[in-house]
Amino acid sequence: MTVFDSLASGYDLGMLPLEAAILRRMRRRAFPGVAGQVLELGVGTGVNLPLYPPEATIVAVDHSAPMLRQALRRPARAPVCAVQADIHHLPFRDGAFDAVTGSLVFCSVTEPGRALAEVHRVLRPGGRLVLLEHTRGRGLGAWLTDRLHPLWFAWNGVCHLNRETARAVHQAGFRLLREETRVLGIFRLLEGVK
Ligand SMILES: C[S@@+](CC[C@H](N)C(=O)[O-])C[C@H]1O[C@@H](n2cnc3c(N)ncnc32)[C@H](O)[C@@H]1O
């Protein structure tokens, strides 16, 4: 049982304002170009699934069964297979994927370094990592996310507002090819290569 189990049914509705203001456009910049054997981490209700091209094959991982059930109802052009698993222990062989994707996931995984080491393991050499994350901001954004984080985390117990996800991706051995930021550097589209 994860905190996300109870959020699954109301998740899309709760996210509507943020989707309309920021995320929808960033998702469209991030995921339509991803093809081949793709692993999506923390797929949630499957918001990204309609964006993948028909040539891709998606393995959608989440540790929350209610989230996966919602994801499987989502229309998609690519074939989707859902796997209930923890990102820290991915049940896939080394180099199994051409690309690994995720959105709004590394704010809530317990050990980002360990999870990224697993991602690195299951990606083939030259494979791409495409993430859309909210992170510690830049300048005023850094000040804001640092100030708000303790209150936010005390309330929900799972989501970190000030994670340095770009740095963690670099430290996990990926070469960063693209980093696009929005809203004081808080929202980031990161693309790395193994
Ligand atoms: C904030 S939601 C984001 C959902 C979706 N990717 C999106 O962009 O709307 C985070 C998702 O990651 C999943 N998650 C968090 N930590 C996980 C872990 N360690 N292993 C597998 N899934 C995880 C949660 O169950 C949840 O569905």
Summarize this, please?
With 194 residues, the chain is α/β, with parallel strands linked by helices.
Provide a descriptive summary of the structure in words.
The chain has a seven-stranded mixed β-sheet, sandwiched between helices. The chain has six helices and seven strands. It has one domain: Rossmann fold, CATH 3.40.50. The longest helix is centred in the N-terminal third of the chain and has 20 residues, at 11-30. Helix 3 links the parallel strand 2 and strand 3. It has helices spanning 3-7, 11-30, 65-72, 112-122, 140-156, 165-171; strands spanning 37-41, 57-62, 80-84, 97-103, 123-134, 175-182, 187-193. It is globular and about 40 Å long. Helix content is 35%, strand content 26%. With 194 residues, the protein is of the alpha/beta class. S-adenosylmethionine (SAM) binds next to strand 2.
